[in-house]
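Quick entry between incubations.
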Amino acid sequence: MPLASYQTSVPVVVDDVKCIADKGCTVCVDVCPLDVLRISDMTGKAYMAYDECWYCMPCEADCPTGAVTVNIPYLLR
Amino acid sequence: MAMDEIVDGLSEVSCDVLVIGGGTAGPMAALKAKLRNPKANVVLLEKANVKRSGAISMGMDGLNNAVIPGYATPEQYTKEITIANDGIVDQKAVYKYAQNCYSIIEELDSFGIRFLKNENGDYAVKKVHHIGTYVLPMPNGETVKKALYRQLRRARILISNRYMATRLLKSADGRIAGAISVNTRTAEFLVIKAKAVILCMGAAGRLGLPTSGYMFGTYENAANSGDGYAMAYHAGAALANLECFQINPLIKDYNGPACAYVAGPFGAYTANNEGSRFIECDYWSGQMMLEFYNELMSGKGPVFLQLKHLHPDTIGEIESTLHKVERPTRGLFQQGRGVDYRNESIEMHISEIGFCSGHSASGVFVDDNARTTVPGLYAAGDMASVPHNYMLGAFTNGSIAGVDAMEFADSHDFAEFDSSEIAQERERVLAPTLREDGIPPNQIEYKTRRLVNDYLQPPKVTHKYLLGMRRLAEVRDDMQKQMIARNAHELLRALEVQSIMDCADMAAHASLFREESRWGLYHWRTDFPEKDNENWFCHTLLSKRDGKMTSEKRAVQPYVVPISDDEKDLYDKQRIRASA
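Done. Structure below.
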């Protein structure tokens, strides 16, 4: 069966201006219990690659520059 | 190389004690094993990152089961937990926990974790349970994981993050020999030979589907997909009382409690839509959950946590705890809904089902030394069968497991295993990556968990269960023949859904075996609505024998602390009775 991609509005938002992943920082990617954050090849910044979030906050709490914001996923907001 | 790209690789290491799971019990088990024999090698394997993994990734607001001299005795606590679990308790393990937990509190205190004290410098313990006083707030509870991590580094524990264990290895004579694991970002294999293995892999939290429909909005950390239960099962270990499900009272649509343990001691209470109390005690027992469920389903639902009657300063104090620790997005959620605790009650609902001894009484069967039925294999924390563990139970029983496992490792050599098992496991794990076309893991998982909700959630109806098991078997067939994983991250989810499916099968099998109702809502069977002490005052043990799932009865071990006849039904009297 062919696969289609499925659009979702993701809960974790990264401020590209504040994010220093392009300088080698990987803190948010490292700490995420669900391993859903990645560094973009295009922008060099962190982003949420998989919508599988427990909105638990380590990414936001541990980010050294305050670039990460965790929102409540839309389905339960 | 891009992250998540599948890489072909296999390496092998060995250690004296392997601890799987770096949440709460695991770090303590690893630490205690290493301190028992500093020359030995201890490996702590973790699917995520030990710094922020497990149920307490953002800390914890307090201890729910602290047995502190002057406030409670081990005898009193053992009695309370026995009664709260309808008597189906091997008291030896509970009593041992109760005796040891105070020294663990002192040790945590020495790690820099603070516990609330009153003006006299005594621990300020609060009453939440039906009978005794065991709840102790933690003012800097958000620092727990950091404090633990420091201890692990200091003791030079070898930490391997982002490895998911998939199967245990055993020798021909049945002794533990190690584990097979897969890197969650590259799909490379790591085989770890070990003299003793401690499983601390948390609850089975992704079993039911939350009512929001968001698959990862579970009460338990969604990384806790029940891998430990599945691994123990396939290794032939016995699992106890899995029919005693975990179901918790939560904020409606949110995955955290309101939380009566924090707010109750200040005067908050659970109320129906008339604003009236309907339960005697907010402590999470199956009996309390049954009243909660009945009220929700009656014309008096929804159910609320009521605190608007309290002084604004008190509400502020409760709010600051609830919005800072354990579930810090609780405040953000309430803000989004426009709920201010000062003028509105908090709407509550019940969680999806799961397995978790932290709050119920099911899990991989262990004795008072945290030993499973497989020699050299241990279990601790939410996945082990010591009832109503909570965080302090995970620390205390993790500590017991660590010491005993190192003693086992010191007196045994490595067990030999059949190396063809590694090739077989590689084939099983990688199968979804070799298919060109098929069904992605998220759809297999959604369907499995939707069926769990439709057919396995209490009230348990035999006919529904039989249908549900048929449907689940069809999905299992799809999972085994058609599931695809296009990168290492998808493979992680594909492996997790296999654990979820195993747990669903075990939940159904165990529930049908026990032909009575017990533990309130947790095991309410409409075809057998009464508690039947004559035939079912026993544990049930589920295990894999000759490739098949089987269940048997196991006698409750003689009590250490006697329970008198007028005490044993105290938790059955949860509903507030109308009085003139």
